[in-house]
What we know:
Elements: H1 2-29, E1 54-60, H2 62-74, E2 82-88, H3 97-103, E3 113-117, H4 128-145, E4 150-154, H5 169-191, E5 196-200, H6 221-240, E6 245-247
Parallel strand pairs: 1-2, 1-3, 3-4, 4-5, 5-6
Helix pairs in contact: 2-6, 4-5
Amino acid sequence: MSGRGKPAGRKRKAQTNLTENEEKRQRDEAPSDHDVPEFIQLLDSDKSENTNKRAVWLVGDSHIRWAGERFHSRHRDTFKNFTISWDGQSGLRVEDLHPVIQLGMIKGRTPEIIFLHVGGNNITSTNQCKTIRIIKSELQYLFDIFPNSLIVWVFILPRLSWTREVVDNSYQKKMNSKRQKINRTISNYVLSFARGRAILIESIDLSTPGMFHVDKVHLSDVGNELFIFSIGEAIASFLGSDIKFIKC
């Protein structure tokens, strides 16, 4: 009798191994998260939000990035009628802008209004005429590929310091003058389009150092709050009327 028990045990063990192997095969064949193609929704800041909300897209350098960080951490219920996408990249230069705009087209709902803040990282190292030429080209591209959107030029914000090196005050004045010339030229250009708009956040200036981070380049928490508030004012003004230029 004992001899008959051993084959039965081997049979049960074989069946167990077969079941385990079958389960492993099914797990291996089942689609994983990595197998499912991911569709990029660059213009949709929150998948859970109502898709009927009006879309706003902010593109640019680290000022956009850090304002976006502040917005998401403290302002989730702000701008309830809009989905806001903060597409900011630290160190972004005007020559890096084109692929960012192209990525913004991928699987994204066309925004009603686009804000652009870029150029500050070119002030000290790029010829002024070249900077202006590239920005104009990218603005024209935006008008072409988003024919139903308002395009807003956000005046390049000032900096308490344009270099990490110790320099005399004349250098700072020269760089700030260059910034102002670019802003004037680009604002005039964008306002020449029917769908062009511009915003000057004049409350953030060199006379209010508390608006700036200790690095003298980026904005402080207070500065970012004001930046966000100004964007909200611009959205309300530009989408609610025919106003083309505002100061905050």
